[in-house]
Amino acid sequence: MRSAFDFSPLYRSTVGFDRLFDLLDQSSQIDSMTNWPPYNIEKAGEDQYVITMAVAGFSTDEIEITQKENQLLIAGQKKVSEEGRQYLHRGIATRAFRQTFNLADHVKVTGASLENGLLTIELKREVPEALKPRRIEIATGDKAQPQQIEHSKAA
Length: 155
Description:
- The chain is mainly beta.
- The chain has two domains: 1-30, no CATH class; 36-80 and 88-130, Immunoglobulin-like, CATH 2.60.40.790.
- 10% of the residues lie in helices and 34% in strands.
- It has helices at residues 8-13, 18-27, and strands at 39-45, 48-54, 63-68, 71-76, 97-102, 107-115, 118-125, 134-135, 150-151.
- Residues 30-141 form the SHSP domain.
- Belongs to the small heat shock protein (HSP20) family.
């Protein structure tokens, strides 16, 4: 059972975390339809992720993947008309779906493939060089001029 949290005290003592609090608020309002189609989110490396979604019965032209800013939208809509078919049992769902994932800053889609009914979306976090941590030299009395600043690997 989920309960709603009041983040208003945190708004008074933090700056720039609005998006985080909005995500937490939204997570309590997610409806139960987001569990279809089933999917996995996997960490494949230091800055690499893979989303695998079971979309049996859908072809590549019936699935649309869109990334807008920090949001990844995956939507599927069947285009084939099934007139004249009579099912005795229908266990393969072909209903339309719409799944949204909120991505961290600098996470980009690097590839997508559909094989054996599994849609695989590869993601990678690519932090721009200007935003990576950097080492700053401290000048001493005999070195009054600024020193060259070295960039180090992201933490």
